[in-house]
Amino acid sequence: MPLTRKAYRAAILHSIADPAEVGIEASYEYFEDGLLVVENGRISALGHASELLPGLPAGVQVEHYPDALITPGFIDTHIHLPQTGMVGAYGEQLLDWLNTYTFPCESQFADPDHANEVADIFIKELLRNGTTTALVFGSVHPQSVNAFFAAAEKLDLRMIAGKVMMDRNAPDYLTDTAESGYQESKVLIERWHGKGRLHYAVTPRFAPTSTPEQLTLAGQLLTEYPDLYMQTHISENLQEIQWVKELFPERKGYLDVYDHYQLLGERSVFAHGVHLCDDECARLAETGSAVAFCPTSNFFLGSGLFNLPMAEKHKLNVGLGTDVGGGTSFSLLQTLNEAYKVMQLQGARLSPFKSLYLATLGGARALRLEHKIGTLHPGTDADFLVLDYHATPLLSYRLKQANSIAETLFVLMTLGDDRTVLQTFAAGQQVHQR
Fold first, then answer.
1. pLDDT band at 102 (very low <50, low <70, confident <90, very high)
2. Is the pLDDT of residue 3 over 70?
């Protein structure tokens, strides 16, 4: 295969550590006039343009963006493919919302043509918003996952997904059985896990919709295939927590249900965690599990405020999730706008560099993929974005008043959305152009 090499010149910024652990100044690298060199789908060099340009071999094409910022691709650690068609559904909190809107919408995925159509829309929407990796819930139907992975494979995207396992407390048209959920997941794992840049996640929807038998078999899959992911929901809504207590009276709490069935681990991601206690955060951190912080969803469904400082205290890995369709935007910039408000309501601050960390390296660490994505370090996958300083008239005018990269970054996160993403690259290939 011939060597393909290309360079991109712009302001360049990436997270290199968690600001909560090393302080803000040591948490990022910024090149006001930077150069990113890409070879065969990977980053081969990053630095100041003045230092790298003289050493570039003759004939290497250099794309120059004088009014833009290059960052790593965004990482969404919690989103639902089959809820694309019901995003922004009115008037309910979690449990009623599932019954009124979610389950009927997910039932349509019994039709493979519908699954293919939505997978295409969904992936285009992710890339338009600068999301290059996502941890995705399918529906209970295997075809939802087949459709998603087939579309992701064509673009060589790094994506993680799984078929929902749900064998009780849901409509008959949307349930599997403990055994069929296990067998169907196994077929999908054998077909897709580790193919290209694709990974499989064992996906029990949440404790109330799985019997003890199904949770046992979910844990068994993780034992049989040790490098799988596991994704589910936890402590999103107070009614839901009470329901879990009634369904599992023998367990000491919601997290303990998952712990008992051996679902905690280094590739386990629990969505929401709004009402976790100190002990649960400590246990999640101890097992290497992660939480997906989903502010637009937590506001929209009235679920509550995620306690990021408590998670930081326990050194718990936290990624960012849009949680479409409970969340109201595919944009991680918009999601960070809401995350800032969540912290403000708790008397805390979310620095723009911590925000960047959550959307990139923090998500990569939550997924144990920081050696491949989440930064712009040489050797990592060339998944990156070009963010346009002139995407809207207001953004353009506001950024003229910005005096630092911190202010520029914060303005991009409060005023930015899908329009801000000029180009998205995955494995060195352009997969979106605004």
1. confident
2. no
Determine if the peptide bond prior to 325 is cis (ω within 30°). Answer: yes
Look at residue 23 in the predicted model and tell me its pLDDT: 96
Q: Rounded CA gap, 385 and 359, in Å?
A: 12
Q: How far apart are CA 167 and CA 377, in angstroms?
A: 43
Report the side by side order of strands in the sheet with 384-388: 42-48, 28-39, 5-15, 61-72, 384-388, 421-426, 429-433
User: What is the reported pLDDT for 92?
Assistant: 76
CA distance 7 to 84: 35
Token pair 């404790």: residue? 207
Q: Nearest 5 degrees, angle CA 327-CA 330-CA 333? A: 100
Q: Which residues contact 82 (CB under 8 A, 6 or more apart)?
A: 105, 106, 108, 109, 118, 137, 138, 139, 144
Query: Quick one: which of 335, 340, 343, 342 has its CA closest to 360?
Result: 335
Helix (H, G, I), strand (E, B) or coil at 429: strand
Question: Cα–chain-centroid distance for residue 99?
Answer: 25
CB neighbourhood size of 25 (10 A): 8
DSSP states along 241-258: HHHHHHH-TTSSSHHHHH
With a cut of 70, say whether residue 13 has pLDDT above it: yes
The 3-state secondary structure of 122-175, one letter per residue: HHHHHHHCCEEEEEEECCCCHHHHHHHHHHHHHCCCCEEEECEECCCCCCHHHC
Instruction: Express each pLDDT in 314-369 by its tens digit.
Output: 999 999 999 998 899 999 999 999 999 999 999 999 999 999 999 999 999 999 99
Contacts by 225-228 with C-beta closer than 8 Å and gap 24+?
225/189, 225/193, 225/200, 227/193, 227/194, 227/199, 227/267, 228/189, 228/193, 228/199, 228/200, 228/201, 228/202, 228/267
Quick check: 121 and 391 in contact, CB under 8 A?
Answer: no
User: Does the structure show a pLDDT above 90 at 205?
Assistant: yes
Q: Report which residue type is found at 228.
A: L
- pLDDT for 105 equals 84
CB-CB contact of 361 with 119 (8 Å): no
Q: Give the pLDDT of residue 99.
A: 80
Q: Which of 92-106, 131-145, 259-273 has the lowest mean pLDDT?
A: 92-106
